């Protein structure tokens, strides 16, 4: 990407330059294509056995199509209009009222699924808990009442800083029940990142765990919260989930009057919490994602459209049914965790398997031992995880009975053909199952492109648009490109499960629709083949994708600039065999600062403490200066081209 304005999302008419690696990827996909036919049994039992009919319905009468999907939910009041659209604004299922927690819990409690396992949770240390739908109903209602007693009402914001534990899911659903807007912050973010999110949404309540477990170590979370809220007087309550305690334990004495014990506030006897009737367009949650500025971007998803999309695509794409044991290796801190750990599978009545911790600890075979023991038959994971398993060899999963694992879906970053083929052989091979790719993003909260189980898989290509999706590849001016040419990925019609705004920043939301007027610009480079399969080649903006996590280059650069020794910084992403991308930083020191032996480690630790371990650069290069244009803008593409051994292109604007 050429030198560009770093002040916000892409400008309305950017220049579009494909990197050498993207051009090479397009040529390689055309030259080395491998086709994997869909397994006959899986295709026969697919939710959409005739997706062509579904697609015709969606294209021919999109409003009726989405009305049919919305009517699979339980509505408190029916909607009277499917869509109002005047770009960039769109409203779905107008006039309808519903509640997300009712759709995820109540309708199963009042059915024969009442005593069915909703959540099976396993900790990294082997601790296990099972929540039936009936138990989940009771826990959610009790915590919903607790929040109401604290003064939380419809529209208030509640921040969660918790790992993947059942109490986190309970908190999300309790917020949904009373109409509060939850915002989960990944429990690996540093103090500055957490504080900026609390401030941006003006959260009334923080719910946190006191620690998380990772690779056998307890990592404290409460001190991060303490530091983040120290001078934030608008935060009225901090509820602490003490991991070592259980319901009924004596309450602990906290240092601050605004702090409470999770189980203590939940202990009241009243079980039923009256659900709030939410307008279809009322916000359900805010989820922060990295943009090209240092300011966090609060993506707002609304109740009716979001729930319609994740319920439909949990069935139609991931093939999740109420009899399935489904495992997503993601976390509730990311959109995958919201859509396909919590709201999608639970709205169907499936059993969701959850595990805290990394998928190769305490041993490389822990994932497959759990799949065998619990009978997991559908898995959603990230390409980074597949590449990690691949590094341990195919003999590790081969030791276990994976004959029930019929579908493995990958998303979050490009799934390279080598990893796809390895997973098809060693992970899906026993069951004659299928590995499928799919693409979506925080802003569009369910699959947009993907390989349905009735399609051929083409490793390196994501798949085709989902029913109801009208996707295209265009040049920088919005003109459609021929098949085989790389360009900007856009959506020509709104979807119910798209973001409605950016919290407190409508202008920032409008930029999604301004780059190509009348279209939603996804911010990715893509190419489409003559059969309608798309390959997504990477970002067109300054957002890195590290192990499936979006990290703004400006966030990392800003963190480095907050270090006392740093005068200037620039950050780029480089290919990484395991993570997809890794972070390299270039730093100019302040005058008089000596590059001592511990300085680079100090800089890395500073970013880790500030933004979390995901954002820590893998490499930091100290330089006397950074390449700049005559107007003073840092030319990051030059730094990346040098690192990649590529032609940096036109350097006529460089100052020297």
TrEMBL record:
<dbReference type="InterPro" id="IPR042099">
    <property type="entry name" value="ANL_N_sf"/>
</dbReference>
<dbReference type="Pfam" id="PF16177">
    <property type="entry name" value="ACAS_N"/>
</dbReference>
<feature type="domain" description="AMP-binding enzyme C-terminal">
    <location>
        <begin position="556"/>
        <end position="633"/>
    </location>
</feature>
<dbReference type="InterPro" id="IPR011904">
    <property type="entry name" value="Ac_CoA_lig"/>
</dbReference>
<keyword id="KW-0436">Ligase</keyword>
<keyword id="KW-0007">Acetylation</keyword>
<feature type="domain" description="Acetyl-coenzyme A synthetase N-terminal">
    <location>
        <begin position="58"/>
        <end position="104"/>
    </location>
</feature>
<dbReference type="GO" id="GO:0003987">
    <property type="term" value="F:acetate-CoA ligase activity"/>
</dbReference>
<dbReference type="GO" id="GO:0016208">
    <property type="term" value="F:AMP binding"/>
</dbReference>
<dbReference type="InterPro" id="IPR032387">
    <property type="entry name" value="ACAS_N"/>
</dbReference>
<protein>
    <recommendedName>
        <fullName>Acetate--CoA ligase</fullName>
        <ecNumber>6.2.1.1</ecNumber>
    </recommendedName>
</protein>
<keyword id="KW-0547">Nucleotide-binding</keyword>
<dbReference type="InterPro" id="IPR020845">
    <property type="entry name" value="AMP-binding_CS"/>
</dbReference>
<dbReference type="InterPro" id="IPR000873">
    <property type="entry name" value="AMP-dep_synth/lig_dom"/>
</dbReference>
<comment type="similarity">
    <text>Belongs to the ATP-dependent AMP-binding enzyme family.</text>
</comment>
<keyword id="KW-0067">ATP-binding</keyword>
<dbReference type="GO" id="GO:0005524">
    <property type="term" value="F:ATP binding"/>
</dbReference>
<dbReference type="GO" id="GO:0005829">
    <property type="term" value="C:cytosol"/>
</dbReference>
<dbReference type="Pfam" id="PF00501">
    <property type="entry name" value="AMP-binding"/>
</dbReference>
<feature type="domain" description="AMP-dependent synthetase/ligase">
    <location>
        <begin position="113"/>
        <end position="494"/>
    </location>
</feature>
<dbReference type="InterPro" id="IPR025110">
    <property type="entry name" value="AMP-bd_C"/>
</dbReference>
<dbReference type="InterPro" id="IPR045851">
    <property type="entry name" value="AMP-bd_C_sf"/>
</dbReference>
<dbReference type="Pfam" id="PF13193">
    <property type="entry name" value="AMP-binding_C"/>
</dbReference>
<dbReference type="GO" id="GO:0019427">
    <property type="term" value="P:acetyl-CoA biosynthetic process from acetate"/>
</dbReference>
